[in-house]
Each structure stands twice: as structure tokens, then as C-alpha cells.
Amino acid sequence: MKFLKYAFFSLVLFVPLNLQAQKLTWAEVEPGVWKAVAGKPETFDLLKAAGAIPYHTGLVEMGTTDFPLTKTAITATIVDGKTYLRFPLDKSEQLYGFGLNFKTVHQRGKILTLHVDNYAGKDDGHTHCPTPFYVSSKGYGVFINSARYIKVYAGTAVRLDSKTPPEIQDRNTDKNWKSHPYADAVDMLVPAEGVEIYVFGGPTAMDAVRRYNLLNGGGCLPPRWGLGFTQRMQRLTDAAGAAVEAKAFEDKGYPLDFIGLEPGWQSKSYPCTFEWDKARFPDPEKFVQDMLKKDIRINLWTNPYVSPEASVFPLIKPYAATHTVWNGAVVDLTIPKARDIFFGELKKNKIDIGVSGYKMDEVDGGDTYLWPDVAVFPSGHSAEQMRQTYGLMMQRYITELYHQRNQRTYGLVRASNGGGSLLPYVIYNDYYDHHDFITALINSGFAGVLWTPEVRASKTAEEWLRRFQSNIFSPMAMINAWASGTKPWTFPEVAEQVKQMANLRMQMMPYWYSEFAKYHFQGIPPFRAMDLEPGFKVVEVAKSTSNKKVNLEENPYEDVSAKEIKDQYMAGENILVAPMFTGQTSRTVILPKGKWYDFYTGKLAGDGQMITVTPGLDKIPVFVKDGGIIPMMPVMLHAPKADQKVDIEVRYYGEKPGAYRLYDDDGETFNYEKGNYSFREIKVERINGEITGHISGAITGKPNTIGKVTYKMMTE
Ligand code: GAL
Fold this sequence. Notes:
By secondary structure, the chain is α/β, with parallel strands linked by helices. 23% of the residues lie in helices and 23% in strands. Helix 4 (205-215) crosses helix 13 (509-522) and helix 11 (461-472) runs parallel beside helix 12 (495-507).
């Protein structure tokens, strides 16, 4: 009897009921997007912090698709107040995403803690934007809507009851014994008693990415001027200094759309007062307006930590966390009253007088200065939740201030997270590795954010030009001279080449702007990995170029991961960019299937193959698809104004008939949200060697900024 009792208890002990996997019910919340709820999700999550509202029209246009995974293979179990999630993984799958990584594009085999942080040189999940979203090469995506530090085992954890276990190897005798056996799942630990899970259908990985962005409201649409050139001034610059800088750009003929003021415009910084320094900026309104008259906008650096010497401090104090950052109060942005006071301060005498946007610094960490995880916020939201969402909330509420004025903004931020695709901000950081900056640009397309490989300083003219060249092919073309005081012409040996690149950026504005419109309305990231490009088969190229022997049966993704492509990327629909780095005179480029043409000459560069290019110092290798169209405008020093008509030169490459959707609106307001925009259809064909081009007519009642259209056949 005693024995039986013991047996009964041990049974109960070994199979506790709460370890049973939950039954997940999948609801198709938007076409091709499914949601399931595990346990009791928290009321505060990423989508709520970001204020994300799905762009339903865009999702409907994509249509529905099949649920991409076996539903029963996705499990959620609540253990010890935490949620364990498990998603199936095939042997041949590669994984992308899990936020803004800097060194790797392939994420299979990683163990990560998704944690908003200053990037410290390791892809371990601590980064400026650790989006809990991943995409599979099999053509689906998964998003975990939690504002917690999520632990991810991306195909590393092997279960005893696995139905597809790895081969058991004997290390004594097997030379190929592996310390990291194949695992058939992605496991995640969400430190909360429940969570919302989203699955995005394909059939392609790009479809899944698009659906993710559209669920967030679509990608952001910057104002036209945001896509011009921006110079961030050295710290402690005054109004006169900024005016001199603007004049130098004009006199030397370098484009300039906005100037960033770094620490020094405020009377005190670190912590910040949010008040203009009276000595350096005696008349801020006149300064901002005088600049605007020259078509130059002002962007203001700040971090959000409120100085006890700020006049707003007594009002803010009741809404501050227990812990400070650089002795400044950390406002609880989840409390509406606190927001009114804090964002009122960012508006007053700043946005009100014509400031075009903010650079919201240091909302990411690191731990040595940010609030600790033991900080308590008056709303009761934990320090962890606030850390994961502070950047999102800063972007959201500043954007709202601009929305109220029906004026678009385009700024910088050092932290973001899932849910933030629509927020018009570009991430940057203090890290400065050119290679890794390009890898981050590639990964930004999986993370639902924008990233700029900003140019700050360089040891040599070569480095300066190489960095500048890739920066021109990024979401924000910018020199950040806050510490160095550098200018585009700092290295006289390459000043002319730098000017040519800055001019090219301006000429390409119709292309960039149209590609951003596709980000907004269709969710297509403007800057993205080759892996999202149809017809890009790394494996095929890899097989022909790699001598590495791998056991493809046991570990097929190993071969793919050996061929991770992290130094070339797609920029918009038609362009492939392959940056050159200091010291390189030539490099290899993998061209996706089909013919590709040299952007500058229109000459055939290759056909679905790996090529070697030797472009010289003046050029960054750029290639255009067969039938690719690049709409260009004349070189201008500032972006065209809202009602300014601009002539378009349609550049056409290759042989295939080309089609392009050219986006048009006023470039400055949110009127596009009410349908005040158009996509004009461009078609180009080559008939008996003669080129014929056509653009659909302007739509009555919609903004029309398109002047004379000419066509240029780039390929002879
Ligand atoms: C850093 C930021 C730099 C610059 C500097 C000013 O945190 O990353 O770009 O703004 O602050 O102090």
C-alpha cells in the first residue's frame, strides 16, 4: 500500500499537469497572417508600445496563402511562470532575422537573448533593435509579440523525444563527430505567463517579410527631403557656425537637405534641459526659419534624460523611474500625463518653430549607464519592459507631434523593436566597422527597421570615399561629424568623387522615393539581403565554388551557412550594391539568376554568376537587373519642394521589356494617407534596337510633380 502511494506521487511529480503543452488556436487575423495566444499574455507588448495598426489594404492586396507550418508541431508550454515556445525546423532551412545583427545574416545555430542594447561587437541578441521576428528560407515568418528579454535557441536544442533526431555518433571512432548536432526546432523562452504568437505565410521569404511590415502598418514613408543629404555638426556649434557650414555646402556645390545639431544646442546635456542655449542660439526661431528659407532643415540631437536643472523637471519628477541616467530623470512614457509634459517640452520652441525632427540618442543602453533592471517605474511596467520599448515609444510619440501638424519627419534613433516599421527613424550607433555596417544594412530588412552606415571620420582618403560610397546607397546619406568636425571635402584628394556621389544620391531621389513608397504600401524593405531576391541561389554558386566537404544529408544548412552573403545587398527593386572596403582593389559579386548590367555604363556584367570586379577608387560596384528602370532627376542641392515640377530621366538597362511604378505625392505631408498620391506606370521596350518609353498620365486631383519625361537607353 505504502509503495503504491509512493508510485502515485512520483507519477504526479514527474508528469505535472502544468507541463502539458497548451492547445494553440490559430486565427487568420489578416490575409496570410495567423495569431495564436499562449497562456495569459501581458497587457503591455511590442505592438501596443509601437501603436501598430495593420495596413489592411496592403495585406488584402497580397491575398491569402496556406498556413506555412504543421500546426500541431508548434507548441507552447507554461513552466514556472514562463512560456516555452517551440517551432519546427527542417534540415534544409536557413533562418534570418532576430533583429539588427552586425556580423551574421544566417541565424540558424545561434543562441540569443533578444535585449535592447548598445551593440558590443557580438551577435548575441544584444542590439539596438532585437526584433523577435525570424524568417525561414522555406518562406514563412514568426513574430513573438513580447516586450521581454526573449531567449532563443535557433536550431540548437535536441529533444529526447525528437521524431527527427540527429544521427548518434561515436566520438571514439567517428572523425566527423559534431559538437553541435542538428536540431529540428527553434525554441524560445519568454519570461512571462503567456504571449501572442504571429505566423506569416509565404510562399517566399519576401512575402513573409512584407506581411510582417504590413502588420506593423507598412514601412515608413520619409519626406522627400529626408532622402537628400544630411550633415551633423560638431558638438557645441552655434547658430553662426551652422550658417557658415550651410553656406560652405552651397558655395562648394554639395547637396544639403538637413543639418543636425549635436550636444550644445541645449543649455545643458547629459542630462538634458531641452532648452536652447542662449549664448549659442540667441534667437532659435530666427535661426531655424533663416535656414528653412535656404531649404535647409534642422534636426536636433537629444537623449530623453531630464536634467534636475531643466525647467520642466519639477513637473516630470512624479512620473520618473526610481533610477536615473547620467543623473537625469527617466520619464515613464506609458503614463499619458507624463507624455503630455515631456513631449510638450520637445514641441515647445522646437517643433513649434520649424525644427524638422529629432535624433533620439541613448535609448538603447548599455548597462553601465542605463537604468538597471531593478528600477521601478510609477506605472508598474517593469524596467525590462521599458528597456525593450523606450526607443519605440520615443519614435511613436514624436511622430504623433508631427502628424498633428500634418508634417512628415525623418529622424534618427538608437533603439527600436518589433512593431516599429512605420516609424520614420533610422538607427545608427557608435560602432564603426565598415564591413559590419553593411551586414547591419542587410539585416535591417529582416528587422523591420532602417539603418545608416554613417560616415564619421577616416584614417585615409580611400577609407573616407569607400564609406561615403556605401552610405549613399542607404536609407540616410549622412556625415555625423559630432566629434570629428569632418565635412564631405575633408579629404581634398577625393572631394570631387565625394561630390559626385552626393550628386548621384540627389539624382536618384525619384527612385529612392518610389522604393520607400513600396516599403510603405507593400511592405518591401528598400534595403535588404540577397536572400530575399528571387533567383538568388547561394547554394548553387556555393557548390561550384566551394571545395569544402560537408555531410549534406546530416547537416545540409552547413553548406549554406558557409556561403553567407553579407557584403552585397539589394537597394530597391532593381539595384544590387556591392561595396568596396579599404584596401580592396577587386572583389567578387554573386549575381542572381538572369542578366545584370553595370549601373554606370549599361554594359552586361554577368548572367546569374559570380563575377570579379575591379572598379577603381571612384566607383562603388552597382548593378541593374535586365529590364531594370531607374528614374532619375537633375542634380539639385536640395530636395524639390512640395509643388515643384521635376523632369525625369528614365534610365533603362538590358534587353527585357521594363516596367516601373513611379510614386508621386507632395513629399511633405501625410495627405497620402487619405489617398492623395499616385503610382505612375512607366513602360520601356526595345523594338528593333529602338527604344520606346511610355508613362501613364497624371491622375486628376492628385499631386503631380513630374515634369518632362525622357528615356535613356543605357545598354547599347
Ligand atoms: C552618441 C551618439 C553620437 C553622438 C554623441 C553625442 O551617443 O551615438 O552619434 O550623437 O552621442 O554626444
